[in-house]
Amino acid sequence: METILITGASSGIGRLSAIHLAEKGHQVVIAARNMDRLEETVHQVPSVAHNIHPYMMDVSDSNSVNNTANLILEDWGHIDVLVNNAGYGLRGPLELLEAQEIQEQFQTNVFGLMELTRLFIPEMRKRCRGKIINISSVVGRMPLPFNGAYSASKFALEGLSENLRLELAPFGISVSIIEPGYFDTAFVTNQTKGIHSEETESPYKSYQDKYLHRQNTFGRPAKANKVAVTIGNVIASKSPKLRYLVGVDAHYAMFLKAIIPDRLFNYILGKILM
User: Fold this and answer.
1) Catalytic residue among 11, 17, 136, 137
2) What whole-number distance in Å separates Cα of residue 246 and Cα of residue 222?
3) Catalytic residue list contains 182
4) Domains of the chain listed by start with CATH number
5) How far is CA 217 from the centre of its chain?
6) Which of 29, 165, 225, 272 is buried most, with the most CB atoms less than 10 Å from its CB?
7) DSSP output for 158-215
8) Nearest Cα residue to 54 out of 121, 106, 7, 108
9) Whole-prediction pTM value?
10) Sign of dihedral through CA atoms 209, 211, 212, 213?
11) Is the pLDDT of residue 44 over 90?
């Protein structure tokens, strides 16, 4: 059994993954900003509560990341698997977003993740084993209207993951990316900043309203436990792949993007969503 650290484990994919892996017998260290919600995760499954261990950490705060990572290493000695799940989506037209909002998006989704990963690599390298699993999104490989800031952060994560996979392979450390499509979690519900603009004079409002309506009616979101199962499969694999698509829409989108020109792909996407 492995010792696994999951960030952003107070809800959604992180919480479901923690429970799924604890039920498999792993020791699961969970981290997030809200300790009360982490405790809820523990109490949700009394039968395996002894396998789930909460730590408070804010991935957007460098001091918090360093202090908590050091505490985890002090308590556990090492981490076998790091699941970088913490993140949020800032949506809206780039023109209407504030510079600070964009910086905060990258601080959480990219820079905080990089700092945390950097702190756990040395122990993995010394032991010549370890797995790093980064939760990305299909928008890290394709465009989506009003997701410029979020998409850019996930494109950055994709590039980082590919590079890490190459440079850590000689030390027995694998790096994998999980790319969910549209999922039914609080993350999606909370992904409203900017796009639900109250500025009725916004030149983007009619397009935003149409996009939201079509997104909410275009098929049904998949269940987030599929991501949890995929994480479990990556951990169990002796030779994990670089990328794992999760969700029918994710598979369809990446299949189309691979076989048709970008101009045609963007045209089709625009017709569907705009």
Assistant:
1) 136
2) 9
3) no
4) 3-204+221-256 (3.40.50.720)
5) 24
6) 29
7) HHHHHHHHHHHGGGTEEEEEEEE-SB-SHHHHTTTTBTS---TT-TTHHHHHHHHHHH
8) 7
9) 0.92
10) positive
11) yes
